[in-house]
Design goal:
The protein contains 19 helices and no strands. By secondary structure, the protein is mainly α. It has a single domain, classed as Hypothetical protein af1432 (Orthogonal Bundle), CATH 1.10.3210.
């Protein structure tokens, strides 16, 4: 693998919290990726929702397929920019490990329930999963990932949480949230690849579900309109699934090439010497869209928010999902003995143990557990 000077280099990693001898055949970032793939939390992503609940159809995205799509896009861009592909893949595959069941509805209701107890952030929960909750190794809790992978996982962090992490890990992964600065280019890339992936697959799932019409997207979203018309110009008479797929394929390619070109321009202007000399972290975000593509992506997100995420059918399902998690949290708080003993042992207090347990649930397990404890059938 050829890496640019500004890329992250595994041999210059800031290391693991618990020192380990190097693997004989794998870099530290490859080792991180492999540990993530073999984790329990990663397997659970197959039954965690993106937009449509797992029981609503086998063709819709889950957190697992989303993470794989982010990893694919990330590796493609990383190769062109000569970044470390293994680090990009590790961050991409781990970035949603702490996400709740029922997508953003689950995150919102769990944050609401945890407001008196420090709140809930799924990025912070993903870090908690890899640092503590995975129980696979005799010498330490968690997966003992490198600083660089952990830094990429912690995409957002409230100041109160950053202060707590900084107190336990001075100058570590939370320092940038307190003092400014950026993460590695590989982490920045995963943030953009995440955005590109979910915009594209939410269009695909929205049209396939019947909640969106391709004609509706064409009329309202210039990014879709341009690539749909290009597809029809090259393939007159193209309709249905093939037209949808070809439109999305062209959109994805255009965004990928835009990121590569805009980032190369930014790198040329900033000329960071390497990833370790603070040149990358001290600069503005260097992985970027062009201004035109950023505006187009923002416009697409606004459309999806208004017409898909707030669609009455999605909202009705969301209400039931929220009721499931709200009831579960209340039941576990009323009687913490309902929680598995290992969660109580790993949490500083029962509310955090409740959040850890609920966040780790799949959609179908949460529904099953809610039915068992309440006798209600909401799905």
């Amino acid at each position: 693998m050829t890496r640019a000077a500004y890329a992250s280099h595994p041999e210059r990693s800031r290391g693991r919290r618990h020192p380990e001898p190097p693997a004989p055949t794998r870099s530290d970032f490859q080792r991180d990726r492999d540990r993530i793939v073999h984790s329990t939390a990663f397997r659970r992503l197959v039954y965690k929702t993106q937009v449509f609940l797992n029981h609503e159809g086998d063709l819709f995205r889950t957190r697992l397929t989303h993470s794989l799509e982010v990893a694919q896009l990330g590796r493609s861009i990383a190769r062109s920019l000569q970044l470390d592909e293994d680090l990009v893949e590790a961050v991409a595959l781990a970035h949603d490990l702490g996400h709740t069941p029922f997508g953003h509805a689950g995150q919102d209701v769990l944050d609401e329930c945890m407001k008196p107890h420090g709140g809930f952030e799924h990025n912070l929960q993903s870090l908690r999963v890899v640092d503590l909750l995975e129980q696979r190794y005799p010498a330490f809790d968690g997966l003992n990932l490198t600083f660089e992978t952990r830094e990429g996982i912690l995409k957002h962090c409230a100041r109160r949480n950053a202060l707590q992490i900084e107190a336990a890990e001075p100058g570590g992964i939370a320092a940038r949230f307190l003092h400014g600065g950026q993460p590695s280019l590989e982490a920045q890339l995963c943030n953009l690849a995440d955005e590109v992936a979910y915009n594209a697959h939410d269009i695909d799932d929205g049209v396939r579900s019947g909640l969106l019409e391709l004609e509706q997207l064409e009329a309202a979203v210039p990014l879709v309109r341009r690539h749909l018309r290009e597809a029809l110009a090259e393939y007159p008479g193209l309709t249905g699934k093939r037209l949808l797929a070809e439109t999305i394929r062209r959109m994805l390619s255009a965004q990928v090439y835009d990121i590569i070109d805009a980032t190369r321009l930014g790198l040329a202007e900033s000329a960071p010497a390497d990833a370790d000399a603070d040149a990358v972290r001290a600069a503005p975000a260097l992985l970027r869209f062009s201004a035109e593509m950023r505006a187009a992506s923002t416009e697409l997100k606004r459309f999806l928010f208004a017409n898909l995420y707030r669609h009455p059918q999605v909202a009705e399902t969301r209400q039931r999902a929220e009721a499931v998690l709200r009831d579960l949290f209340a039941l576990y708080m009323a009687d913490p003995t309902l929680l598995p003993a290992e969660y109580l042992a790993l949490a500083p207090e029962p509310p955090r143990a409740c959040a850890d347990y609920i966040a780790g649930m799949t959609d179908r397990y949460a529904v099953k557990e809610h039915q068992r404890l309440t006798g209600k059938t909401l799905f």
